[in-house]
């Protein structure tokens, strides 16, 4: 359940560095933030004391330090969200003042500010999502089944998934689990995605099975029997980090079953029908970023018909079922 030291650093840096690069001289001007940072410093000291032998049994000690780390992470997230919000408010105030003053120089600054406001807004939403957002995890333990070419494609899809989350009105709290620092995938993620190490994503070498309670997990897999009905705030939705050009069936279905967690598929059969096409090609298997876009749209609109209609690429051979659509067996 614990992020190892480097990964915790990585995670903190994700929020911290993005925030730091945006500060542009807006240092920690208010004492409340500095106060919180000091308190955070104290918390680090407490962790050292508590894990340095206060507990006898190994299991108990590990459990305790995991709890302390979890609390620390929550606190850091809240702090980052608060900072981000305050910075956004400051920029928006400045922009409103510039617009009201009507001077040309100020207007140009204001345009610059609008771009910054958009960035800061995105950062604010992402920071908030890490405190209260629905959770989505990409399980990269299955990445070992892939060729180097597929691994590169997966790295690109992770970048696109993150881009969608940045732009989303209601982003998710994202996790990448089982991402080994010495793996080709880790290197490809950095090569293909600018600023990957600063992404507002929690990255860990641990398994999602160690990170989340089993009962909170729903593994999304095209081979599940159950269709997903809702996206619930207390669940963690897991996607299999797989690009399978050679279509290796049921890898994630079996992974979920062996891990003892329930699985669900997108409700494509419930809302869509096969479209007749020249190639007669029909597939319900999507890339992780496509599945994620569908979940984002569903969270935004509450409608599977809208989310699937917009998110399933026409080439997959499915269209939304309407009252007049001829019913073709799926
Ligand atoms: C390219 S698919 C991999 C399919 C692979 N055969 C498998 O065993 O999962 C990548 C991931 O996107 C998600 N996914 C793709 N299509 C899906 C669908 N129709 N319903 C639910 N999840 C889906 C799953 O998490 C899947 O592991």
From TrEMBL:
Keywords tagged on the record: Coiled coil, Methyltransferase, S-adenosyl-L-methionine, Transferase
GO annotation terms (biological process): tRNA N1-guanine methylation
Domain SAM-dependent MTase TRM10-type: 122-319
InterPro entries the record matches: MT_TRM10-typ, MT_TRM10-typ_sf, Trm10_B_MTase_dom, tRNA_m1G_MeTrfase_euk
Any one cellular-component term (Gene Ontology): nucleoplasm
Stretches for region Disordered: 1-33, 79-108
Top EC class of this enzyme: transferase
Gene3D superfamilies referenced in this protein's UniProt entry, alphabetically: 3.40.1280.30
Catalytic function, reaction form: guanosine(9) in tRNA + S-adenosyl-L-methionine = N(1)-methylguanosine(9) in tRNA + S-adenosyl-L-homocysteine + H(+)
Biased composition (Basic residues): 80-96
EC number: 2.1.1.221
UniProt KW Coiled coil keyword: yes
Ranges annotated as biased composition (Polar residues): 1-11
GO molecular function, one term: tRNA (guanosine(9)-N1)-methyltransferase activity
Function: S-adenosyl-L-methionine-dependent guanine N(1)-methyltransferase that catalyzes the formation of N(1)-methylguanine at position 9 (m1G9) in tRNAs. Probably not able to catalyze formation of N(1)-methyladenine at position 9 (m1A9) in tRNAs.
Record protein name field: tRNA methyltransferase 10 homolog B
Organism: Paramormyrops kingsleyae
Lineage per the UniProt record: Eukaryota, Metazoa, Chordata, Craniata, Vertebrata
